[in-house]
Design goal:
Layout (H helix, E strand, L loop, with lengths): L1 H26 L6 H6 L3 H4 L7 E5 L10 H8 L4 E4 L7 H14 L2 E9 L3 H5 L10 H10 L4 H10 L1 H8 L22 H9 L3 H7 L5 H18 L5 E7 L7 H9 L8 H4 L4 H9 L6 E4 L2 H7 L16 H17 L2
Parallel strand pairs: 1-2, 1-3, 3-4, 4-5
Helix pairs in contact: 4-17, 5-12
């Protein structure tokens, strides 16, 4: 009996502390992502020694990587002080936690929010799969659909080597995103293989806005509305950059996923340049003149070739070449709208 009382006391204490930390995390009274901010921006950018107007970039690992399109923007849009707020492994839910405070720190007149078709809806809702995922992974998915702190802790623990580099104030942050010579199914990103084994229809349902993920797309749009509301206090223009999945580009990437044992969508709408997700998102913001949806699929498709792949061979992220292309296109659009 005494043992059970002691166990109950410690369980209560644990849940109480977890609840307090969850509240602190969601309120962001302390910036839980300050390390990323310092890592992706030099001190001169954060202090804005140039006194130029701010341009803020929010997104996930497509924006927070070794050689992101953000660097191309910095080279092209020299009239702005560009602050990269992107956080690897996150989505709109985390972005909405930091957006208000970051906009107070760096009141940007132009804001970019980057979406990735491949996993942004997983940020909205993780889908357990008891037949393909380990027991603990399913438990983790179930917990993080309600509590966000465990996800942050998991992210921090998995990035131990990554954060060592943060301390060195270098932009060379993601050595795991490497453009290996030649595609090898065994060497491909474990994260995405696990994601698609757990939910084989994820990409198709996201692109086509159908099935189990249709409701999640609407939740994403609602959260994007919240984000727009948070940043429009200072931002005059908001660009929503929708990065496609590699399978949307051409048959080369389709065949890669087939070799890994995944079925690939064959519906015409999946390969349409104006695919349903982008079309619906554009319609959603049609009456808001401050918001511009950017779909780089056409320019990525046009510039993908055997000698210049726009996505890494064994990783789902954009290659340096792909990032350059998107950055140049985005810079052109932003310059034309100034």
């Amino acid at each position: 009996m005494k043992f059970l009382r002691t166990l109950g006391y410690f369980l209560f204490l644990f849940l109480f502390c977890l609840s307090i930390l969850e509240i602190l995390y969601k309120s962001q009274l302390w910036d839980f992502y300050s390390a990323e901010l310092r890592a992706f921006n030099t001190p001169s950018i954060l202090q804005n020694t140039s006194k130029k107007p701010f341009l803020g970039v929010f997104g996930d690992s497509f924006s927070a990587t070794n050689d992101p399109y953000v660097n191309t923007l910095r080279d092209s849009l020299t009239s702005f002080c560009i602050v990269n707020h992107a956080i690897p492994g996150t989505g709109i839910l985390e972005t909405n936690l930091i957006a208000s405070q970051r906009m107070k720190q760096f009141p940007a007149s132009v804001v970019i929010y980057q979406i990735y078709i491949g996993n942004d809806l997983v940020n909205i809702r993780k889908q357990p799969n008891w037949s393909t995922l380990p027991f603990l992974k399913n438990c983790y998915y179930g917990i993080t659909n309600y509590l966000k702190l465990p996800e942050w802790l998991n992210y921090k623990l998995s990035q131990k080597a990554f954060f060592y580099k943060f301390k060195r104030q270098t932009l060379d942050l993601n050595p795991r995103y490497q453009d290996e010579e030649g595609f090898e199914p065994e060497a491909f990103s474990t994260y995405e293989k696990q994601l698609l084994r757990a939910e084989p229809t994820l990409i198709e349902e996201t692109v086509l806005v159908e099935g189990n993920r249709k409701k999640d797309v609407q939740v994403l749009y609602q959260n994007l509305d919240t984000f727009v509301e948070k940043v429009t206090k200072t931002a005059q223009k908001i660009y929503i950059l929708v990065y496609p999945h590699a399978m949307q580009v051409n048959d080369y990437y389709h065949h890669k996923y087939l070799k890994m044992g995944f079925s690939t969508p064959h519906k015409a709408a999946f390969m349409d340049e104006n695919y349903p997700f982008v079309r619906h998102l554009t319609q959603h913001f049609a009456n808001n003149k401050q918001v511009i949806v950017i779909n780089p699929l056409k320019i990525i498709r046009k510039n993908d070739s055997p000698s210049h792949r726009t996505f890494f061979e064994n990783d789902f992220h954009a290659s340096s070449w792909g990032q350059q292309i998107v950055g140049a296109e985005l810079a052109k659009i932003i310059a034309a709208n100034q």
